[in-house]
Design a protein that fits this description.
- The chain has 488 residues and is of the alpha+beta class.
- Helix 2 crosses helix 6.
- The radius of gyration is 26 Å and the shape is globular.
């Protein structure tokens, strides 16, 4: 195990990278800006997928899959959309290689008639498909989700948070009315917020994006914003009301009950592997990764403490009942009987990997009918009776889950404050956190604030009260506070 790794206070960015590396979550690949997600990191993503997938199905959605390649001409059909993604697109121009004196080269005779874009997002290819699927109101709504990879050519990358290729889900729905589509976008925001708070133990602010921060091609973007331990915001999920923009761009109409041709109303919504980055930065400490039990690949690890093989055999036999009882409760358990590492090494390894509960069992424990229980969130230990331990562990995992959420919420509250003047804003933004401030509603003002402070409007809170005030930058009238922060 790595010793003397960087602390958050010394270098937050390096601390994050150290955790990703030493907890064996991911590593950089040979392709610049792309990552290899290692088994432990992928197991976290699989747990997220499993929960979200069921939440989508419970709200009436079905999974489908659409092509990785999108004809370039599709992007020219929706102006705001292409403008938003043009600088991030990877483009396929040829379909064949050949041998030459210089080695393998692109065959100049194999040029595509039309270039293909490696999907940065799938609105265009999906709405071209929906044109074939929709004729009448009876074909609506279409409630489809896809689990996929996307490519956005990033120049500055960081594992999980911003990579050229990442994994995500993207929902794309089609509706007969504006009201239905807005209700869908809002419903999915609630799904994401519920997942973040109940499963990730990450408190989030729900709101809408300002026009400058809105998804390219959307009329409204709903978002959840989380605060990381360095005071920066992280956009944890977005749900977009697309209006009829894509339906008009791809001529997707339906015959209404009144026998009229109407354009369809649309939404799209998605979360990605950056949620793993959010987990790391919301909960972890200077001892390594801290995972909420509901998403931890290993919820309980049992480490035998022994000197002789017969002691190991005895411990192994004794804990089988405990393992069985824990698994019967749906708790994931690992019994680490590797003889290549000493117990101390294993303790450090599982602490660094954020396993919520560790049980240590030695010969003396067998004599006393006890077990040492260590919890990762507080780094505390206590000795418990082995009898009925599964009930205590079940309760302890629930307690850890709740404790992580409360701790993260308290941190957010301590680092959120109202500011009423530009001088105050300029000082406070340097301290990090969420600043609730008045803004005059103009994109130009927002851009000037960003240029001067690197802070953006993270969200216009849905539950924010109407409050007359003056814009911190221009002094113009404002009716509501918005949330400013620096972000990932």
């Amino acid at each position: 195990m790595a010793k003397n790794f960087t602390t958050r206070e010394e270098n937050y960015s390096q601390w994050y990278n150290d955790i990703v590396k030493h907890a064996q979550l991911a590593e950089n690949s040979s392709v610049r800006g792309s990552m290899v997600i290692k088994p432990y990191g992928y197991a976290i993503w699989e747990n997220m997928q499993k929960v979200l997938d069921q939440m989508f199905k419970d709200t009436g959605h079905e999974n489908a899959y659409f092509p990785l390649f999108i004809p370039k001409s599709f992007f020219s059909k929706e102006a705001a959309h292409v403008e938003g993604f043009a600088k991030e697109c990877a483009v396929v121009t040829h379909y064949r290689l050949k041998n030459s004196e210089e080695g393998i080269v692109v065959d100049p005779d194999a040029k595509l008639d039309e270039e293909l874009i490696v999907r940065p997002t799938s609105e265009t290819i999906i709405w071209d498909t929906y044109k074939k699927w929709v004729q009448s109101y009876r074909d609506l709504p279409i409630l489809v989700n896809q689990w996929a990879n996307v490519v956005r050519w990033e120049m500055r990358t960081r594992l999980f948070l911003r990579t050229s290729e990442f994994l995500w889900q993207e929902g794309h729905t089609a509706h007969a009315t504006e009201k239905e589509a807005i209700a869908e976008a809002q419903q999915m925001l609630e799904v994401y917020a519920d997942f973040a708070e109940q499963w990730m133990a990450v408190p989030v602010l729900k709101g809408t994006k300002s026009p400058n921060e809105r998804f390219a091609g959307a009329l409204d973007t709903y978002c959840i914003e989380a605060m990381m331990q360095d005071g920066k915001a992280l956009q944890a999920g977005t749900s977009h009301f697309l209006g009829q923009n894509f339906a008009k761009a791809f001529d997707v109409k339906y015959l209404s009950k009144e026998n009229k041709q109407e354009y369809v109303w649309a939404t799209s919504w998605g979360v990605s592997t950056r949620l793993i980055g959010a987990l790391i930065m919301a909960h972890s400490d200077d001892h390594g990764l801290v995972l909420p039990p509901k998403l931890a690949p290993i919820q309980v690890v049992i480490v035998p403490i022994y000197r002789k093989q017969e002691q190991l055999d005895e411990i192994t036999e004794k804990v089988q009942g405990t393992i069985k009882a824990l698994r019967a409760k749906g708790i994931s358990v690992k019994f680490d009987a590797r003889d290549t590492h000493k117990p101390g090494f294993k303790f450090a390894e599982y602490e660094y990997k954020g396993v919520p509960v560790r049980l240590g069992v030695g010969p003396r424990d067998l004599e006393n009918g006890t077990v040492e229980v260590a919890r990762r969130d507080t780094l505390t230990k206590e000795v418990m009776d082995m009898e009925g331990i599964e009930l205590k562990i079940e309760a302890l995992l629930a307690e850890i889950q709740e404790n992580l959420f409360i701790k993260a919420k308290d941190f957010r509250e301590e680092n959120s404050r109202k500011v009423d003047s530009w001088d105050e804003f300029s000082v406070e933004i340097e301290k990090g956190g969420f600043l609730y401030a008045h803004w005059d509603g103009s994109p130009e003002t927002e851009q000037k604030i960003k240029d001067e402070t690197k802070a953006t409007i993270r969200t216009i809170p849905l539950d924010g009260d109407e409050e007359e005030g003056k814009c911190i930058f221009t002094g113009n009238p404002s009716s509501k506070r918005v949330v400013f922060a620096r972000s990932y």
